[in-house]
Amino acid sequence: MTLLEAIDGEDREALVELLVDDVVFHSPVQTYRGREQILRLLLATGSIIENVEVTRRLDGVTFFAATVEEHPVDGV
How many helices (H) and strands (E) does the chain have? Predict the structure, then answer.
């Protein structure tokens, strides 16, 4: 299972397996540190995005399109 699939499926067990203990996520708003903090963030994200579709893969980076409350969004 990919990280994007785990987020989209709100699969807590898969996310726990995919994230290392000292994972760091830098967002435009703040930096999140540690598996538990990022796990909450990714599960919340998974609960609001729908219709996730991979649009491109480039050097280990996945680009995707989705919807949030019927609004189109793009993500990396």
Answer: 3, 5
Residue of 39, 32, 46 whose CA lies nearest to 18 = 39
- Alpha-carbon torsion 28, 41, 60, 57, what sign? negative
pLDDT in tens, 24-62: 999 999 999 999 999 999 999 999 999 999 999 999 899
According to DSSP, residue 10 is labeled T
With tokens 């019927």, the residue in question is 70
Task: Quote the DSSP letter at residue 19.
Answer: S
CA torsion sign, 53 to 54 to 55 to 61? positive
Q: How far is CA 12 from the centre of its chain?
A: 12
